[in-house]
Amino acid sequence: MTVMQTPPTDGAGAELAQRLRARTATVGVIGLGYVGLPLLASAAGAGLNTLGFDIDPQKAEAIRAGRSYIEAVASSDLAALVEAGTVDATSDFAQLAACDVIVICVPTPLNRYREPDLSYVKGTARTIAAHARAGQLIILESTTYPGTTEEVMRPILESSGLTSGSDIFLGFSPEREDPGNTAFNTVTIPKVVAGDGPQSAALVETFYSAFVDKVVLVSSPSAAEAVKITENVFRAVNIALVNELKVIYEAMGVDVWEVIDAAATKPFGYMPFYPGPGLGGHCIPIDPFYLTWKAREYDISTRFIELAGEINVTMPARVIAKLDAELDRRHNVPMSRSRVLLLGIAYKKNVSDVRESPSFKLLELMTARGVTVRYHDPHVPEIPQTREHAAFAGWTSVALSAEEVAAADAVLIATDHSAVDYDLVVRHARLIIDTRNAVRRAGLAAPQLVLA
User: Are 171 and 196 in contact (CB under 8 A)?
Assistant: First the structure.
């Protein structure tokens, strides 16, 4: 971590620094999803004028009407910011020219070969370059491999004829959003920042300091990019570890959840992670493979990370194998003639976020075997359109009733939402396959319960 940079004292950088400190700068945010919309609202809440950009005109329309589609931003708060004139949104990217600061919050998925897909980042950079002017600060927040800001973003932006570090200023700050986490938000989560050169670093730090409680400046964009990758590799590897321990301990007749909870009482040297049906979300299933891909450029094999990925990827198939075995053992029902109620489409509890949810893989495996599947998710009334799982778009959540539960040969708990009535499930389910230990955490005992 480095100390705060000296603010620029001349040229376009000095003028921008003054506008940031006076909070008269206009902030543009590209990509108004789970990262972009909370960022837009947080900056506006601190008195900065903000303008959101998204290729989806419905998102811009919703924001202008004060309707939030992200749980982390309340519609009442958004409406107040719109009414105050500090938030606006558009699909007209020509308006980027009016922005003093442009923050990029677009997806960085993997392609079918688990290689980085930077098409959204590159396309956005080209759009910015077409409207860039001197004195703008451009910040990438999308998670990516070390080197992206300087090796990919900078050449595209400089194709405008403007030079990074003197005409325009370039930075990177990894998003750290955690949907459903009520203890931390955009303002209270410490913000790691870096700039392409000292003037850019100072400007990035000044910008985020206007609305984030703590800003942590590191030496380079590559270091900041590596911070986010490190955070998510850490989680992916530890989740893979407990998933493997689950398999081992199950074979030994040992309850892995009991073991983890007991180990978590140690006040030092241990941090609990919990097994599940697979990895989900916009970060953990994807980000580690950005590093494995980049490492090949240096002839380095990332065996540890790739092994963790292999373990986590096998979890959905293992859950379905357990379901198959228990249907046959307990009810003599083949999967091809079974009916299953899937509890949970979201990738984690108490959110509506379905990105990379392991529930989709569970759905694929079950429907491929001829299972009649219905789902219940209090946070996902209808499955949205996704790139990888278009076949399930439009499926609607059924009401969780005694009749619905009793009609299923098995209830498969994939997401442990707090709003689910687990007592009702226990009272009426013929078989419960619980991948999250949700039933026992609810204080319930069930002879038909199987942990998976």
Answer: yes
Beta bridge partners of 215: 191
> Residue 297 CB: number of other CB atoms within 10 A?
9
What range does the domain containing 343 cover?
A: 245-451
**What is the distance between the alpha carbons of residues 425 and 421, in angstroms, rounded to a whole number?**
7
pLDDT digits (tens, 9 = 90+) for 67-117: 999 989 999 999 999 999 999 999 999 999 999 999 999 999 887 777 889
Instruction: Give yes or no for a contact between 4 and 208, defined as CB atoms under 8 angstroms apart.
Output: no
| CA neighbours closer than 13 Å in the CB half-sphere of residue 409 | 21
Mean of all residue pLDDT scores within the chain: 94
Query: pLDDT tens digits, residue range 192-217?
Result: 999 999 999 999 999 999 999 999 99
* Rounded Cα distance, 84 and 98, in Å: 19
Q: Which residue, 407, 410, 417, is CA-closest to 439?
A: 417
Which of 215, 283, 333, 433 is an active site residue? Answer: 283
CA 199 to chain centroid, in Å, comes to: 30
Active site residue 105: no
Residue 86: how many other CB atoms lie within 10 Å: 21
Total count of domains within the chain = 2
**DSSP-derived secondary structure letter, 316:** H
The SS3 call for residue 52 is: strand
The answer to whether residue 1 is domain-embedded is no
What CATH number should be reported for the domain holding residue 380?
3.40.50.720
**Residue matched to tokens 């392991």:** 358
Question: Percentage of the chain with pLDDT > 70?
Answer: 97
Q: Are strands 169-172 and 191-195 parallel, antiparallel or unpaired?
A: antiparallel
Identify the bridge partners of residue 346 per DSSP, sorted by sequence position: none
Reply yes or no on whether the pLDDT at 151 is more than 80. yes
How far from each other are the two terminal CA atoms of the chain, in whole angstroms? 42
Cβ neighbours of residue 253 closer than 8 Å, sequence gap 6 or more = none
Reference 13, options 200, 206, 211, 220; nearest CA is 200
Residues 178 and 275 grouped into a single domain: no
**CA distance readout (Å), 173 to 47, 189, 207, 409:** 21, 12, 11, 48
Give yes or no for a contact between 353 and 383, defined as CB atoms under 8 angstroms apart. Answer: no
Domain boundary among 203, 219, 235: 219
Long-range interactions of 379-384: CB distance < 8 A, separation 24+: 379/346, 379/350, 379/351, 379/352, 379/417, 379/419, 380/345, 380/346, 380/352, 380/354, 383/345, 383/354, 384/354
